[in-house]
Amino acid sequence: MQSRRDFLLQSTLFTTGSLLLPSFTYASFKAQQYGVQLYSFRTEMAEDAIGTLKQIASLGFKEIETARSNKGHYYGLSPAEMKSVCNDLKMNLKSGHVQLDDNWQQTMDEAAASGQEYLICSSMPSSGQTVDNYKKVAEEFNKAGEACKKMNLKFGYHNHEYEFESENNQILYEVLLTNTEPGLVHMELDLGWVVASGMDPLDYFTRYPGRFPLWHLKDMDLNKKESTELGKGGLDIPAMMAHRKASGVKHIFIEQEEYTINPLESMKQNMAYLKKFS
């Protein structure tokens, strides 16, 4: 009997194939260098940043994305120290989750010193689930993108679930996409939160091609709306990977916020699962 996931995958490939034109297979990609969002190891990074990075490197991760902590953007390390440790472990400090706030210049200065490429705003800088607020935020994002560009950095935004709410039949995330400059605001699409909101990432790949140079590859238990190990939730990962070229993705960061085991063992499972797509 055909599973629901197989049926959805087959249907998706038929309905989007003419638009996405996936004239390639999994094997046609070079081995993907996966990254990890360090929020997945938030407790461990706070207790022993260097030791945890060594464990992460041992799993085969090649890129790192940081997250703000109570010890700063780099878990008590200086930007230069974070860069050095990652380099020694043959990992690339690529991106970091930050807030767009009054300390923005310092945040950019730190990112430049760390050698990272992206600064990703991890949540809406102002409250208000309205079209007008999202247009206002889009202007702020364009300005932040301009400031980053002057420092050879790239600015971006990471979604959660609430951006897919609507006002006056307008999906707020789409207001953000429409009113931000693609060359200044680089979207990091959290695939788990997209499906948790009831939306389809492939639809966004089709309608906004090339807008998503970064992903959070996160599988979701759609009943609990919690993340889980890859392949165990409601995200159709084979379909995502088959159409990653259409999305414009360059960097795929694995993130898992909740665990049935522990971060290290869960990430071992995640990396083993992803081998089929390399």
Furnish the topology, listing elements before pairings.
Layout lengths: L3 H17 L14 E3 L4 H6 L1 H10 L4 E4 L12 H10 L3 E7 L5 H11 L3 E4 L9 H20 L3 E5 L7 E2 L2 E2 H8 L5 E6 H6 L4 H7 L6 E4 L1 E3 L4 E3 L8 H6 L1 H4 L3 E4 L8 H12 L4
Parallel strand pairs: 1-2, 1-12, 2-3, 3-4, 4-5, 5-8, 8-9, 9-12
Antiparallel strand pairs: 6-7, 10-11
Helix pairs in contact: 1-9, 4-5, 6-7
Keyword list:
single chain; 278 residues; alpha/beta; two-stranded antiparallel sheet; 12 helices; 12 strands
Can you walk me through this structure?
The protein is an alpha/beta fold. The protein has a single domain, classed as TIM Barrel (Alpha-Beta Barrel), CATH 3.20.20.150. Helix content is 42%, strand content 17%. It has helices at residues 4-20, 42-47, 49-58, 79-88, 104-114, 131-150, 172-179, 191-196, 201-207, 237-242, 244-247, 263-274, and strands at residues 35-37, 63-66, 92-98, 118-121, 154-158, 166-167, 170-171, 185-190, 214-217, 219-221, 226-228, 251-254. The strands form three sheets. The protein has an eight-stranded parallel beta barrel. A two-stranded antiparallel sheet has the order 6-7. Strands 10-11 form a two-stranded antiparallel ribbon. Strand 2 (63-66), helix 4 (79-88) and strand 3 form a beta-alpha-beta unit. The radius of gyration is 18 Å and the shape is globular.
CATH homologous superfamily descriptor: Divalent-metal-dependent TIM barrel enzymes
E-strand count:
12
Element pattern in H and E: HEHHEHEHEHEEEHEHHEEEHHEH
Q: What is the share of helical residues?
A: 40-55%
Distance between the termini: 28 Å
SS field, number of helical segments: 12
- CATH topology: the name is TIM Barrel
